[in-house]
Amino acid sequence: MTLIDSLPSDAALCAIIDSQMHLEGPLLPILHALQAAIGHVPEAALPLIAQRLNITRAEVHGVMTFYHDFRETPAGRHVVKICRAEACKAMGADQLADHARARLGVDWHGTTADGAVTLEPIYCLGLCACAPAVMVDGQGQNRLMGRVSPAAFDALLAEVAG
Questions:
Q1: What residue numbers bound the domain in which 51 lies?
Q2: What are the CB-based long-range contacts (under 8 Å, 24+) for 152-161?
Q3: What confidence tens digit (pLDDT) does each residue in 117-128 have?
Q4: Which of 5, 59, 123, 141 is 20 to 30 Å apart from 89, CA to CA?
């Protein structure tokens, strides 16, 4: 599926939901399918999911908010994640995060006004020996970088947002 520019109708949401109903334990696959198709899981989908699965809306909301990769709003064209785990913090991740938030003009989970970059925390990228670590654009098309200084961060931004 591809990213949809505007919020789809209830019928379109139900079609995405129904496409996953054949799976055992379909809630997570439904959430993933919605996010893959739309870029986020819209609030309007939660009662539809609950109805189809015969569970409460609170249960759907609880699962969605438990997993940090599900979004309630669309992300920017690029998602920059800065590691917040202890090894990275010990090597300057807090200073890098402060620099990133100031440079982008957003807080965690915020998206720049031009829609170019969303900034998110992540709790361990597995590059502890090369801290602090940053990942751009998630799995698949990702760029994973270690020993990221404020200057390296700025260069990365210029590359992805430029």
A1: 10-66
A2: 153/96, 153/99, 153/100, 153/103, 154/103, 156/80, 157/80, 157/103, 157/104, 157/117, 160/78, 160/80, 160/116, 160/117, 160/136, 161/77, 161/78, 161/112, 161/116, 161/117
A3: 999 999 999 999
A4: 141
